[in-house]
Structures are given as C-alpha cells and as structure tokens.
Design a protein that fits this description.
- By secondary structure, this protein is mainly β.
- It contains no helices and eleven strands.
- Strands 2, 4, 5, 6, 9, 10 and 11 form a seven-stranded mixed β-sheet that branches.
C-alpha cells in the first residue's frame, strides 16, 4: 500500500522555524516528484515547494522563497520542508504529494497525498 505520512507541524511564534517531514511507505520517493502544498481555511490548496524526480531541481513560489527549503533523504525515504522566518500567513495544513517524474503546479496531477499536518504561526 502506497502511503505518505507528514509530521512536524505545531504552534510556533512569528519568526520561528519548523521542519516538516514526509515519509513514504510502499514506494520509493526517489522515483517520484514530491511536492509540498498548504491549505488555509477558506482558501485553495497551493504549492509551496517541489522537487523533480530526475534532476532534483526544487522550486518555490515567491511567497516562501528564501524562507523554505525542501530536501530529500533517499536513505530514509523521506522528504523534508525546512521553514524559517515563519509568518502568520503561513498558517495552514501542510500536505506532501507525489507524482511521476516532474513537478506540477496543479493539485489534480498528483497521485498520492498524505493526511496533512497543521502549522499555526501565532504569538
């Protein structure tokens, strides 16, 4: 059974940091493009980072560039999202998702999703 499990969310003060993990079971993350998405209440799910399968290139939207870093640990079959300088606008449920080969900005093009982890940025 192919499964993605996120962890590492929580409550953090503005300016703080968190590291989210996305662990895969039943398949090898190395063979997929892995994206991180987030969804705030009343808003659409949006991509915040992605890593291609083949070339390892990572992408970020301007809203998180220079603050979020995605990395992949093949030996642990896990992808991480390091988040720094967090802002209240970063509050959302964060999801990881997998699709073949290359990243896509379209939520509908991802085949596998985790259950999400809540990140709350508040003082």
């Amino acid at each position: 059974q192919l499964q993605l499990v996120e962890s590492g969310g929580g409550l953090v003060q503005p300016g703080g940091s968190l590291r989210l993990s996305c662990a895969a079971s039943g398949f090898n993350l190395e063979n997929y493009a892995i994206g991180w998405f987030r969804q705030a209440p009343g808003k659409e799910r949006e991509g915040v980072s992605c890593i291609n399968r083949s070339d390892g290139i990572t992408t970020y939207p301007d809203s998180v560039k220079d603050r979020f870093t995605l990395s992949r640990h093949n030996g642990k079959n896990t992808v991480y999202l390091q988040m720094t300088s967090l802002k209240p606008d970063d509050t959302a449920v964060y999801y990881c998702a997998a699709r073949m080969h290359y990243c896509s900005v379209s939520v509908a093009e991802y085949d596998y999703w985790g259950q999400g982890t809540q990140v709350t940025v508040s003082s």
